[in-house]
Specification:
Blueprint: E1 12-14, E2 17-21, H1 27-36, H2 38-41, H3 58-70, E3 75-81, E4 84-95, E5 101-108, H4 117-131, E6 137-142, H5 147-156, E7 159-170, E8 173-183, H6 191-198
Parallel strand pairs: 5-6
Antiparallel strand pairs: 1-2, 2-3, 3-4, 4-5, 6-8, 7-8
């Protein structure tokens, strides 16, 4: 990954794993993947509290994501493996000023889970946020019962910071979220490089991988 690349749009890759910006014309692929994984992803999907407004259409949601990306406030990527779209990773709520931080959220299709794709994608995104965007801190919030998603951050060495009570509306109710974070100083050589070093000693597959947070 070159540090000379523009902040956005940015396409990142490591081997067969790629992060690329979501596009309006991805609608059919995105919807098909979501429908195929409805049972797999549904229990972990964020939802809108009663009275919070109607859900957006795909095109409206993508248009808003891309507008925020141009403003430097969002990073809406799709995850691809060997050119096949298999999931999504978003850099949400980018904060500048005294904070200089971003929050990651991600999901992957069940048929590609447990192959190290999500940790690689998170590492790519982390290095882009720190090395290219100049951010200082990356945070990931995960439901405490989403053990396989927690395994992703554990593999990458994210530090647990505690529980946010009733932090996110998920599957129809308010849910606690465990917070994990890393700062630039904690990974001076880059997270992708550290992940590659850890992989040979961390190759036991998860029995029920669920990388959506």
């Amino acid at each position: 990954m070159s540090l000379d690349q523009p902040p956005w749009p940015a396409t990142l890759a490591d081997g067969k794993v790629q992060l690329r910006p979501i596009r309006r014309r991805d609608q059919r692929t995105w919807w098909r993947l979501r429908q195929q994984n409805n049972d797999w992803l549904g229990p972990w999907d964020a939802s809108a509290p009663l009275g919070a407004g109607l859900p957006e259409t795909y095109r409206g949601w993508v248009a808003r994501q891309l507008r925020l990306a141009k403003q430097g406030r969002q990073l809406p990527w799709l995850i691809a493996y060997d050119s096949e779209v298999v999931g999504q990773l978003n850099g949400n709520s980018i904060e500048r000023g005294a904070l200089q931080q971003v929050s990651f959220g991600y999901w992957i299709s069940q048929h590609m889970a447990g192959r190290g794709i999500v940790p690689t994608a998170v590492a790519l995104a982390f290095d882009h946020c720190i090395g290219v965007l100049g951010l200082h801190r990356v945070e990931i919030g995960i439901r405490p019962d989403n053990t396989n998603s927690i395994r992703v951050v554990e593999k990458l060495g994210f530090r647990p910071e505690g529980i946010r009570r009733a932090a996110v509306h998920v599957a129809g109710t308010w849910r606690d979220h465990a917070v994990f974070a890393l700062t630039a100083e904690e990974v001076p050589g880059g997270l992708l490089a550290r992940w590659h070093k850890r992989q040979p000693n961390d190759s036991i597959p998860l029995l029920r991988p669920n990388p959506n947070s």
